[in-house]
């Protein structure tokens, strides 16, 4: 009986070897399907470092940036790391997943999570984030985005520190934090310009191909939505020595035809009035989106001095030259760049710079607190 079993085993092995010899040879250059790569996307994201920060420690150096495409190298993270920031702010378009073939978002976040420069940076520097359209799941998307709740869920998974600040059930990713001791308190407010935003209006009389959107006259339309406006008003009551608003789209820009607050002029005016109501002499706004960096400043009719520094992009750059901006300070910068804010508590001012890939400043200004 034993010999028969052994014979059957030998025949089975011979058949298996014969069958295997008929299989096509594997292509060593072929990428196996994602499900065969080992860890799931959720596992990759869960293993990504997420540094926390001490809310009682004074902030003196912050970096910030936007527009990082996970399909391209991102050497700018290495440059930013050399400046040793205490905190880095992600301004949106932190991944590119706005097309059907770029989803699900979790899979795209997992690609970002595998980039060595990004891993090295995130293992050392605490991050806080908001989103823009491309990590919201729909190009130029607003309240009508059909995948917005999937995007919200995956944002929470990728940014656990931010997620802890966003109450369960909140419609959007807006949240805030106050960092620093008495007299040195920095309030950072992350606005959500996507989840509740009304539809944009296409420009009906464009002067050229880049005049895409126009300012609406419909005052029922919104960027933030009523709940977020109520939240913001309440947050601005809190005592702080420096206010920083994070807006994924430009706040002061008026002249270009892309996304901006000026596409909803009544909403921008509402912000001016809110600053006046809360007696804010100055506000620093940090924005992204444009694939180019620039600094803008204006004094509102209500008396608040606003500085809007746009840092973009990590690896997405613009080719648009000669673009007008009536509020611009210095020059617009198209190649890769990030923003740097050095806070001088003795002088009560913030030195703002845009820094290029080589680590050199390309534009700068002083924002008075």
Question: Which features characterize this protein?
Answer:
single chain, 369 residues, alpha/beta, Purple Acid Phosphatase, chain A, domain 2, seven-stranded mixed sheet, six-stranded mixed sheet, 10 helices, 24% helix, 22% strand, globular, disordered N terminus
Textual characterization of the structure:
This protein is of the alpha/beta class. The chain has a single domain (57-368), classed as Purple Acid Phosphatase, chain A, domain 2 (4-Layer Sandwich). The protein is 24% helix and 22% strand. It has helices at 2-21, 41-46, 76-81, 105-113, 116-122, 133-136, 148-158, 160-163, 226-235, 265-277, and strands spanning 61-65, 87-90, 127-129, 175-179, 186-190, 201-202, 213-214, 242-247, 282-287, 293-299, 305-310, 328-333, 337-344, 349-356, 361-368. The strands form 3 sheets. Strands 4-5-8-9-11-10-12 form a 7-stranded mixed beta sheet, with no helix packed on it. The protein has a 6-stranded mixed beta sheet with strand order 3-2-1-13-14-15. Helix 3 (76-81) links the parallel strand 1 and strand 2 (87-90). The radius of gyration is 24 Å and the shape is globular.
How are the strands ordered across the major sheet?
4-5-8-9-11-10-12
Low-confidence stretches: 1-38
Query: How many separate structural domains?
Result: 1
Given helix and strand content, the structural type is: alpha/beta
| Distance between the amino and carboxyl termini | 92 Å
Q: DSSP helix count?
A: 10
What is the CA-based Rg, rounded? 24 Å
Q: What name does the CATH topology carry?
A: Purple Acid Phosphatase, chain A, domain 2
Mean pLDDT: 90
Shape: globular
Please give the CATH architecture. 4-Layer Sandwich
Name of the level-1 CATH class: Alpha Beta
């Amino acid at each position: 009986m034993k010999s028969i079993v052994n014979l059957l085993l030998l025949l089975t092995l011979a058949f298996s070897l014969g069958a295997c010899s008929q299989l096509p040879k594997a292509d060593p250059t072929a990428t196996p399907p994602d499900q065969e790569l080992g860890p799931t996307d959720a596992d990759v994201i869960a293993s990504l470092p997420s540094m926390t920060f001490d809310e009682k420690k004074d902030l003196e150096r912050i970096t910030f940036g936007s527009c990082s495409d996970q399909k391209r190298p991102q050497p700018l993270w290495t440059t930013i790391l050399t400046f040793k920031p205490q905190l880095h702010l992600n301004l949106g378009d932190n991944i590119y997943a706005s097309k059907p073939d770029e989803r699900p978002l979790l899979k795209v976040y997992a690609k970002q999570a595998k980039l060595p420069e990004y891993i090295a940076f995130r293992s050392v520097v605490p991050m806080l984030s908001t989103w823009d359209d491309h990590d919201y799941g729909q190009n130029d998307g607003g309240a009508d985005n059909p995948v917005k709740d999937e995007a919200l869920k995956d944002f929470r998974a990728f940014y656990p520190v931010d997620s802890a600040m966003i109450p369960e059930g909140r419609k959007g990713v807006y949240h805030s934090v106050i960092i620093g001791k008495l007299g040195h308190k920095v309030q950072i407010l992350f606005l959500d310009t996507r989840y509740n935003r009304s539809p944009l209006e296409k420009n009906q009389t464009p002067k050229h191909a880049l005049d895409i959107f126009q300012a609406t006259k419909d005052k029922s339309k919104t960027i933030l939505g009523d709940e977020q406006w109520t939240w913001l008003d309440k947050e601005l009551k809190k005592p702080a020595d420096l206010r920083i608003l994070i807006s994924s789209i430009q706040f002061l820009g008026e002249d270009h035809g892309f996304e901006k607050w000026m596409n909803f002029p009544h909403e921008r005016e509402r912000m001016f009035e809110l600053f006046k109501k809360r007696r804010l002499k100055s506000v620093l706004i940090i924005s992204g989106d444009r694939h180019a960096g620039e600094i803008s400043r204006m004094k509102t009719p209500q008396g608040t001095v606003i500085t809007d520094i746009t840092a973009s992009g990590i690896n997405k750059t613009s080719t648009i030259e000669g673009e007008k901006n009536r509020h611009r300070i210095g020059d617009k910068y198209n190649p890769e760049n990030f923003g740097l804010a050095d806070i001088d508590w003795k002088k009560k001012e913030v030195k703002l710079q845009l820094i290029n890939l080589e680590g050199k400043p390309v534009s700068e200004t002083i924002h008075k607190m």
